[in-house]
Amino acid sequence: MQIVDSVHCTWTSHSQMLRLFPFIKIPTHFHCRFAASATMSTLSPDIAQPPLQVAKRLEKFKTTIFTQMSQLAIKHGAINLGQGFPNFDGPEFVKAAAIQAINDGKNQYARGYGVPDLNFAVAERFKKDTGLSVDPEKEVTVTSGCTEAIAATMLGLINPGDEVILFAPFYDSYEATLSMAGAKVKGITLRPPEFALPLDELKSAISKNTRAILLNTPHNPTGKMFTREELDVIASLCIENDVLVFSDEVYDKLSFEMDHISIASLPGMYERTVTMNSLGKTFSLTGWKIGWAIAPPHLTWGVRQAHSYLTFATSTPMQYAAATALRAPESYFEELKKDYKVKKGILVEGLQEAGFKVFPSSGTYFVIVDHTPFGQKDDVAFCEYLIKEVGVVAIPTSVFYLNPEEGKNLVRFTFCKDEDTLRAAVQRMKEKLIRLLKG
C-alpha cells in the first residue's frame, strides 16, 4: 500500500512513522498535518497533545452537568430522573403529520423565519392562551428549539456591556449565551422554600445600564410559577426604566397550582417583551427541536437577524407537524396536565417517604429537594452517591447559580417518565436511603 506523496503531516520523523505504521510503505519525504488527531493519540500516547482551545467568553463553561450525569447513569445502570426529557413518545397524530409532510415532499429548506402554516398556528395558539393578537408574518419567528430562540434573542438584542438580570437558579444555557453576547449578568436568587421573588433586591438591581430581565415561568429548575403580583412588579419596573423582558415559557402547559400568565399580556408589556416557547415539552418531542419567539416587529428584527446566521431555518417537515400539534383540541392539554399530576404525585410522595425535604412545585416537570439529611458534603457528591450506590440520577443544582454555594444543598428530580420508571426509582431510594438515615 502506498501513501500519496502530497499528504502532509506534523510528524517529520520517518522512523517514527514506520514504528506507528509498519504495514505501510512510507516515502522518506512524507509529511503530515493531522494535528494530533484522536486516532494518532490513541496509537502513540507519547506524542504531546495540544491544549484544548476555547474562546475566553466560554472558558468557565464545562461539559454540561446533564451530559456528565447521563454518562454516569449509563455506566452504573441508574434510572435517569435527571435530564428533562420524557422516556415515552409523543402523540401519534403529530408523528403522523410529520410522516405525511415528508411523503408530500416538504423536505427542502424552509423559509428562514418559519413555514407560514406554523407561524399562523403559533399566532392562533398565543391568542387562545393570552388574548393577544399577533401578526404571524411579522411577529413570529420559528427557531431550532427554544434554546435557539433564547440565543437569537440575546445575540440579536443585547450589546456588549449591557446588563441582564437573571433569577437564580436558572437554565444553564442562559449564562453561557449571555457570555457569548458580552453581557454583564446580574443574578437575583430565589430562595426555598417558596422561591419567592425578592422584590426589594430586584428594585435595587435595576440600573440605567439594565437592558433586559430574563424570566422563566413556570420556572426550571424550581417548579415555581411567578404570581400575578410578582409579574406586575416586574412589569412596572421595566416600563419605568425602559427595560426589555425575555420570557421563556416552554412549560406553560404544565402549570398545576395556578394559571400560567404570560408577562406580554400585562398592560404596556407586549411592546417590550420577547416570548419564547417550543413544541418539545408539551408534546414530548424534545428531539424535534421546534421553537419560536413572539415579539413586536421592532424586536423581531434583531431576533431574526441573529437567527438567520445561527441556523437560518428549522426542519421543514417537523414544522408542518408542529402546526398540527398546536391546533390540538383543548382536551389534549387537559389530559397532559392530568397525566403529569399523577406522575408528580408518585415522585413527590416517594421522595418524602425516602427522607427528603421536598419543596413545592407549581409547574414544569421538576421537583427540588434538600439532600442534606443524607450527610453528603454537597449536591455533586450526593448525586454521585445516588447514582453509584442507589441507582437513581438527579441533577445537582449548584450549576444553576452564579454562586454555586447557594445551590449546594439542593438537587433536582424530574417526573417526565412513565409511571413504572418513577415507581422503580422511588423504590430504590426508599430501600437504600431510609437505611442510610437509620445509620
UniProtKB/TrEMBL annotation:
A single GO molecular function term of this UniProt record: kynurenine-oxoglutarate transaminase activity
Cite the Gene3D superfamilies for this sequence: Aspartate Aminotransferase, domain 1, Type I PLP-dependent aspartate aminotransferase-like (Major domain)
Q: Where is the Aminotransferase class I/classII large domain?
A: 79-428
- What is one term from the GO cellular component aspect held by the record? cytoplasm
| Necessary cofactors | pyridoxal 5'-phosphate
What keywords is this UniProt entry annotated with?
Answer: Aminotransferase, Pyridoxal phosphate, Transferase
For whether the record's keyword set contains 4Fe-4S, the answer is: no
Q: NCBIfam families from the xrefs?
A: PRK09082.1
Q: What is this protein called?
A: Aminotransferase class I/classII large domain-containing protein
